[in-house]
Amino acid sequence: MNAPRRVALEAMTPLEQLRAGQTARRLPQLFVGLALYGAAMGMLVRSELGLDPWDVFHDGVRRLTGLSFGTIVIGVGVLVLVLWIPLRQWPGLGTVANAVVIGLATDATLSLLDTPDGLVWRWVLLLGGILVNGFAGALYIGSQYGPGPRDGLMTGIARRTGGSIRLVRTSLELTVLALGWLLGGVVGLGTVLYAVLIGPTIQLFLPFVTVDLSASRRRPAHAGAQPADAPLEPVASALEPEGEGQDGLGTRAAQQPAGDGQAPARVDDVVDEEHGAACRR
What we know:
The strands form 2 sheets. A two-stranded antiparallel ribbon has the order 1-4. It has a two-stranded parallel sheet with strand order 2-3. The chain has one domain (23-212, 233-269). It has 10 helices and 4 strands. It starts with 7 loop residues before the first strand and ends in a 15-residue tail after the last strand. By secondary structure, it is an all-alpha fold.
């Protein structure tokens, strides 16, 4: 029996992400992953069986404002990116694309897809949406172009406050879930199933789609280091998705600065050992 494929998820600054090579594969993979992520989100919305916490919030705001679901996703993503400024983080290409492409793909899917009449077909949409979401999250994480806005917020707060990833993530998601529910967002069994299944699903696909950048990263450990007085800090590319992953990755990888000489995270260790979920947008 062959051993599982092991590929490093590199901790890189945004500039290093752009210079890491294999652009002809990584860039299409990023945008295909984000488009599929938006399509999966549309499937979950049309199932009407429950959404993940951030999408419960998006749905609640949609009901309050009358704007399209995708417009709300984009608007919230931009506002979350603004919150990166006091956290002293730079977004990567994947971060900015995540904030825009997922919302556009969600609206496109919702314009083509209606809620089925039968409960069985709604369950097909729900479970299929979770499966597609996990594959899409693995694609965009594996392209190594940076985390989604919501993941960067989570890991940035954890780093600045010294709190655990589990505590910060749980606090953020309970907050947006409660706000979304109060605004009328859809909470249901699908909310629970998403929380339970999305991590293992991403973990299943990630080893097969992560782009190996180890050859381009073979250089002295100090080469990627930042000056101590740098005004902003890049967020590591290997973070917990998201599911924009929007959904992100493991605790160790998320807190490891670029160029510190430690071994990078590997794709069979990317699920946060404290929390279990692997990706948000």
